[in-house]
Amino acid sequence: MPETSHQPLHGVLLLAHGGPDSLDDVEPFLRNIRGGRGFSPKLLDEITDRYRQIGGRSPLLEISRLQALALERELNGGTSRFRVYLGMRNWRPFIRQAMKEIQRDGVSQLLAVCLAPQNSRMSVGLYFERVQEDAKELGLAIPVSFVESYHNEPLLIEAFAEKLRDALASFSRENDEAVSVLFTAHSLPEKVLTNGDPYDGEVRETAAAVAFGYGLVNWRFAYQSQGMTTEPWMGPTVESVIEELSRDGCRKMVLAPIGFVADHIEILWDIDIHFRRYAAERGIELRRTQSLNDDPGLIRALAAVVKRNFAKVEG
């Protein structure tokens, strides 16, 4: 619906990492992630093989589009006040493309939301910088605001807790053997900790809130998907925790990746293939919570965050 004086069009820009649409896209995708810097043939072969093992492509774009459509429906509730856009940082559709659509549609004000609940200047902050740069270069003269974090949004915690409940129930239906729970989030270089970055505190707060929401007392936390670089990355690693649990006699565990809201390579390969195999080799059966994807619980959480932030902007 075109903008009118009675009903200004509110834009919501969902931001995601992006992922290759085919094995041929893996190399340019990696170049985007690395800012054009080169990489070894070995690294390319390793990443390409991982995508081959999960079907030859990333499902992230399809899932993110479903999330955007569902959020727009939830926000509007029969009206046309909100329009939701999708922009990827490292692959198509790029953020600039989304910003051009926003400019074309005559959006009156824009709220950018990264599809990563916890904030870090090294991750979420870079998405917002890109939005600001593209807005400036396109001459987009509208108010632009940002949701820096929604790591403790009650509806998000509830959605994660429900998935944890389902995963634990799948074990309890089989026997009464104790099940260990491990929460995870994507690792970042350790250097972020020296600059007062909120990320480490926020991912641990999310994990604690989900555990509390389920009534869980004993649980662990680890960082996954450390980068293939020589610099130190945040830990403990999932592998090290699996080793400890194995020594302690653990035979069943649920891994809950509360740093992610959709299936992508870090879920489908890192957890479903690598960690599951690593655990099995140490006598542990590993299962994970299902990703939120376009689950109504996540959509309600995002809608609550969006409405609350627009209410702040509008005073």
Strand content: 5-15%
Radius of gyration: 20 Å
Taken from the alpha-carbon principal axes, the silhouette is globular
Number of domains: 2
Task: List the strand order in the largest sheet.
Answer: 2-1-3-4
**Helix content bin:** 40-55%
Total beta strands: 8
Question: Kindly, what is the distance between the CA atoms of the first and last residues, rounded to a whole number of angstroms?
Answer: 25 Å
Low-confidence stretches: 1-5
Report the order of strands and helices.
EHHHEHEHEHEHEHEHHEH
By CATH reckoning, the class of the largest domain would read Alpha Beta
Number of DSSP helical runs = 11
Major sheet: size, sense and barrel closure? 4 strands, parallel
- Second CATH tier, the architecture of the largest domain: 3-Layer(aba) Sandwich
Summed over residues and divided by their number, the pLDDT gives a mean of: 94
Structure class? alpha/beta
And the CATH topology of the largest domain? Rossmann fold
Key features?
single chain; 315 residues; alpha/beta; Rossmann fold; 4-stranded parallel sheet; 8 strands; globular
Structure description:
By secondary structure, this protein is α/β, with parallel strands linked by helices. The chain has two domains: 10-151 and 295-314, Rossmann fold (3-Layer(aba) Sandwich), CATH 3.40.50; 154-288, Rossmann fold, CATH 3.40.50.1400. It contains eleven helices and eight strands. The strands form two sheets. It has a four-stranded parallel sheet, sandwiched between helices. α6 packs across α7. The two termini are 25 Å apart.
